[in-house]
Amino acid sequence: MARRRRMNLSPRRLADKLVVNRVSSLVGSNGVLEAKRRFVKPLMRQRLQGAKRAGSGKVYGRVGDLEVRLSTSRAELRQAQRLRYRVFYEEMSATPSLTARMKRRDEDPYDATCEHLLVVDTAAPEGGSGWGQRLNVVGTYRLLPQEMAEQGGGFYSQSEYDLAPLVAAKSPNYRFLEVGRSCVLKPYRNKRTVELLWHGLWTYVREHGYDVMIGCASFEGLDPDKHAMALSFLHHYAGAPEAWRVRAHDRLYVPMNRMAKSEIDAKAALRALPTLIKGYLRLGAYVGDGAVIDHQFGTVDVLIVLPVERIDPRYFAHFGAPDEVKSRLAPDVERVM
After folding, report:
1. Is 142 within the bounds of a domain?
2. What is the pTM of this model?
């Protein structure tokens, strides 16, 4: 029996392939070659050149055996995708496609054009593809710069929220960075790891001069009524002013104003908020208008809009080595999603 040839794609070829698959689904097979020539190759060339200029692989911080840095290889990207699969599909309630179930990886076309911030356990063995093997990538954040979104398929959050008016209005003076797919492997889900991941994120933001962070954050489950108090709290106390407001698309819009402001127990509502959302709020984030039910991931999503200028300067001033930080995040970190 003839052996099937194994294809070893370079990171550049892999990125091309992922984006071409996305283009094919949109324009059909007849338009793929032309789309690849005009769109994919120039986009990915710029993406990889930009990564070199940005110093991919530079370590942003260390705590013990853990370090935070950008992904540098296809193998590391796959580990991040396996980590996301473990958290979102095995631990939580996301519904995998047949391909995702077979590969045991959470992946989509955006992975090819995004930066991937990683927390790596340098003492853990590399690999993690088989049952029971440890991942040495134990935390991740997916980062999509505005310039890459504009040349590619737009921001991921655009599928749920109408970001275009805000980005158009603010772009002359503000550069946007979309953040998402954040998760930490369960044994590492503690204050130290989460702060190291956030330390890497803030370092990246300052290093590249981004002015606004945007992205979806989630409540578990598909029933917004189960989160009525927390959603209402966000609506009344954290809703974005007109200048920063982003609305969910009409076809997806779920009202967040499910309780009158006078009926809300603020302390109880804060306790009910996911840790990641609490962390963003403590930094000064706004929340968009309307929630969205994400059936694939089994969540109720809200949009986070965080202008960097709203973050207390003392937070950055004291953000030295991650283990020295007096964090403003929730002290009882249980999950980052």
Report:
1. yes
2. 0.78
